[in-house]
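seq:
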Amino acid sequence: MAQTDPAATVGKHPCPECGADLQWNAARQTLACPYCGTVVPYAPGQALPGASVVEQDLQQALSHPSSGRGWGGAAALEKREVQCQSCHAISVFVDGKVARRCDFCGSPSIIDHPSLNDAITPQSLLPFKVSEAQMRTRLRQWYGSRWFAPGKLKSAALTDTLSGVYLPYWTFDAQASARWHAEAGHYYYESESYQDAKGQRQTRQVRQVRWVPAAGSLDHFFDDQLVPGTAGVHPALLRQIEPFPTQTDLQPYSPEFVRGWTVERYQIDLGKAEKLNQDAMQQQMQVLCGRQVPGDTFRNLQVDARYQGRTFKHILVPVWLVSYTYGARSFQVVGNGYTGAMAGEQPYSWVKIGFAVLAVLLLILLLVSLNQ
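struct:
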């Protein structure tokens, strides 16, 4: 299996003018110096020498958990980890950036987290493509479309709390082979006589099911099945802003992409993520095999699935995040930093909902009165 040279992956990329470390600029879609403003051209797919996006053998990683861990020499010296005491998210900061509040829940209760260099190294990522200005525009539109939200929501959920974060994800590949058997149901109809309310004899068609045994096999390749490794962003919101184009647009990990941004360290480790992926694949195989059963319906479907060649990647994906408090509750709004898809949580104004229900009832009463 091809391996990526850690030294090449985590090496610095200095500014050609002042020597400072370059950072990824989402608005310009290139590398830029945060100090002198120098822009360095960057072409999609450009990578440092020796860096590449590779699939890792899952069984080997689970059998030898010490392999592929740590962020590498240079990056390990630069990074600092802190943990939120409220939501327990662990954030990784590069080049000495210090957080005052948790980017995920807004809590000021953050403490240093010991960096034990035991985390699996992210070897690829999707760089930010949607800029902060673009996301603020989308946020204003999102707030404006919340009809049943309290009128003070826009002022309470200030967009200046917008944070760009790289979230940890796992991707899994596998070749699945399954044999299945079930009872296939075929519809047919029989005539039935009955007596209606007036005492007259009528005839109607009644649907029946003829059950016959059925069996078959199915081969399917799972490519880049996503499992979030985050504890900071609510899973239901993430599912709404997926997918991330990991099959086509991943870039080899390089510190220029993450300098100046918050990186969350995964808290769903490889072992837990593998089990979640296994369950998800089994559910999908159940659905795919069910589609092969002939007839009109089926029952007692049994699927015996085997998975071979399982591989994984630990990647980082870009997400714009707003955490705000309204009343005693906390809410999140998230945006896909690559595609711009958005999802969010909001409080509801029961006054507005009450007026809406009242308006519907008045409209129904008006229509009834007009028809009489």
